[in-house]
Specification:
The structure is a single chain. The protein has eight helices and ten strands. The chain has about 250 residues and is of the alpha/beta class. It has one domain: Rossmann fold. The strands form two sheets. It has a seven-stranded parallel sheet. A three-stranded antiparallel sheet has the order 4-8-7. Strand 2, helix 2 and strand 3 form a beta-alpha-beta unit. It is globular and about 45 Å long. The protein binds 2-amino-2-deoxy-6-O-phosphono-alpha-D-glucopyranose.
């Protein structure tokens, strides 16, 4: 695992954006696996800036997002489709038809999930998968469990995730209780994974994911088995890993 140790959120965001930009320059029609949450917001800002400066084009880029809340329409301001539109897609030259976010309103989740995986497989898997990490170690919405789930699936959100994400909603009761998430098959099938983290509240999850036991109780720990992971994190998020003696 290659680790970039950055001083703060802005430096982390900029570094992560350089990794994504590098992928796009190298492979203009790459399939990007994209993530939502507060972690990648700054990264998307840099990518939008560089697009506006003419340094980058998304014209041939294709994207698949990790997850979406069940029950939220694409135009709901807390849906992940809305997040992607307002943080990235609406500001760059990506072709709308080339972007995919799980459909939170699907009436047939099983068929939808199977189709999502079939699409990713048919594309030869994701070229670069961007990931944040939950405080409980979740990636996408793969929550701590007694097993890893391979396929895209409907997840019951952990109470701790509902608590963590309540800050984005009017009240905790408004947070959806389920989500559709890519499974570990698609994530681990990616040719390269870019894991990002910022802040003290991610220090424990990063330490467990990077150097703890490989266990579905910390879903991010499966990344230790991936041959090509880049971790971009700030000092605060790396603090426990560094304190545990891992050289970064
Ligand atoms: C969310 C998302 C994840 C994200 C994580 C951390 O619930 N499903 O994809 O990485 O939790 O979010 P944040 O970056 O806001 O801390």
């Amino acid at each position: 695992m290659k680790i970039f140790r950055e001083k703060d959120y802005d430096a982390m965001s900029r570094r992560a954006a350089t990794v994504i930009a590098g992928e796009i320059v190298h492979n203009p029609s790459c399939l990007l696996g994209l993530a939502t949450g507060s972690t990648p917001e700054g990264t998307y800002k840099y990518l939008v800036d560089w697009y506006k400066q003419g340094l980058l084009s998304f014209q041939s880029v294709r994207s698949v997002n990790l997850d979406e809340y069940v029950g939220l329409a694409p135009d709901h301001d807390q849906s992940y489709r809305y997040f992607m539109q307002s943080n990235l897609f609406d500001h760059v030259d990506i072709v709308p038809e080339n972007t995919r976010v799980p459909d939170g309103l699907t009436k047939d989740a099983l068929a939808f999930c199977a189709g999502y995986d079939a699409y990713i497989r048919a594309q030869g898997y994701v070229d670069l998968q961007l990931l944040g990490i939950g405080r409980n170690g979740h990636i996408g919405f793969n929550e701590p469990d007694d097993h890893f789930v391979k396929e895209t699936h409907v997840v019951d959100l952990a109470e701790s995730t509902i608590d963590a994400n309540a800050r984005f909603f009017a009240s905790r009761d408004d947070v959806p209780k389920q989500a559709i998430s890519m499974g570990m098959g698609a994530i681990m099938g990616a040719k390269k994974v870019l894991l990002c983290a910022s802040g003290e509240d991610k220090a424990d999850a990063i330490c467990r994911a990077v150097s703890g036991a490989i266990t579905p109780q910390c879903p991010g720990s499966i990344l230790q088995l991936h041959p090509n992971v880049v971790l971009v994190a700030d000092e605060a998020a790396l603090s426990k890993l560094i304190a545990s003696g891992v050289k970064v």
